[in-house]
């Protein structure tokens, strides 16, 4: 197999390549470390995005193998994993992200600003970040915005699909600084050019939000299917008297089960 880009395997010292988990995982990792890089990457082609991310965190050697940003071969492994195992994620990474970063962005429920993994986060494509509501409010502004700047910046979408009246503070400050550096007679032309870019980005955001909705619906469908299959198995259980232990109609009346069907977890592709 011909490798594109720099895919030479980097050696790690003992301490950095030694997993800190069970002996079984240590043995499995050691076996993989002995494989030639070409064979290791061939195995990786069949892994899910979650498995790829997990494997890249096992040791420095695997991280170097799977996170070599300049390698087209490695990026293609991440891309194919996304297309195969992440339904409705057909669009490629946004500008500034490679395939691995894009997958991690979709999977990891982590606020870009505070780093929290326990708070509910949302993707804001116009800023290309995940944010909890607290950090969203702290990093956006409502007032004191030049009307010309409002014309060329995307407003974040709220959870209900409506547009927020807020704008990202750093984007407002950056665009206003750019405007101030344009001589007065050219400012209208600059605004016009920026507005054209705004329309292009707005179309991209709309498409990415459409994929968000489809992915979320797919997750809910899979969750309901998984719950239903579990209930079917429970209803097949027999007690010591040879009687069915659970009745489906009674299980479905359980309040906690009803909540499971509609549970709104922090949205990520981990599912």
From TrEMBL:
Could you tell me which CDD domains the record lists for this protein? Answer: F-box_SF
Low complexity: bias regions: 14-28
**Alphabetical list of InterPro entries matching this protein:** F-box-like_dom_sf, F-box_dom
Q: List all membrane-crossing ranges.
A: none
Q: Which residues form the F-box domain?
A: 29-81
Entry-linked PROSITE patterns = FBOX (PS50181)
The annotated region (Disordered) lies at 1-28
Q: What is this protein called?
A: 23275_t:CDS:1
| Compositionally biased region (Basic residues) | 1-13
């Amino acid at each position: 197999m011909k490798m594109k880009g720099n895919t030479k395997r980097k050696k790690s010292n003992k301490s950095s390549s030694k997993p800190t988990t069970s002996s079984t995982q240590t043995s499995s990792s050691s076996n993989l470390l002995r494989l030639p890089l070409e064979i290791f990457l061939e195995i990786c082609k069949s892994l899910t995005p979650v498995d790829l991310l997990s494997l890249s965190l096992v040791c420095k050697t695997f991280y170097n193998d799977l996170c070599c940003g300049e390698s087209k071969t490695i990026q293609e492994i991440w891309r194919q994993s996304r297309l195969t195992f992440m339904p409705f994620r057909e669009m490629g990474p946004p500008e500034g992200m490679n395939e691995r970063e894009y997958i991690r962005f979709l999977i990891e429920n982590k606020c870009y600003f505070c780093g929290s993994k326990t708070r509910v986060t949302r993707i804001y494509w116009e800023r290309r970040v995940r944010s909890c509501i607290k950090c969203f409010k702290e990093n956006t502004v409502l007032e004191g915005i030049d009307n010309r700047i409002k014309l060329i910046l995307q407003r974040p979408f709220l959870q209900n699909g409506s547009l927020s009246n807020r704008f990202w503070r750093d984007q407002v400050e950056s665009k206003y600084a750019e405007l101030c550096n344009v001589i007065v007679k050219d400012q209208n032309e600059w605004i016009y050019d920026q507005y054209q870019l705004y329309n292009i980005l707005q179309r991209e955001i709309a498409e990415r939000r459409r994929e968000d909705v489809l992915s979320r619906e797919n997750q809910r469908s899979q969750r309901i299917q998984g719950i239903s299959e579990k209930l079917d198995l429970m209803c097949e259980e027999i007690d010591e008297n040879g009687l069915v232990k659970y009745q489906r109609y009674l299980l479905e009346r359980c309040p906690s089960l009803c909540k499971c069907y509609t549970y709104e977890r922090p949205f990520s592709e981990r599912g």
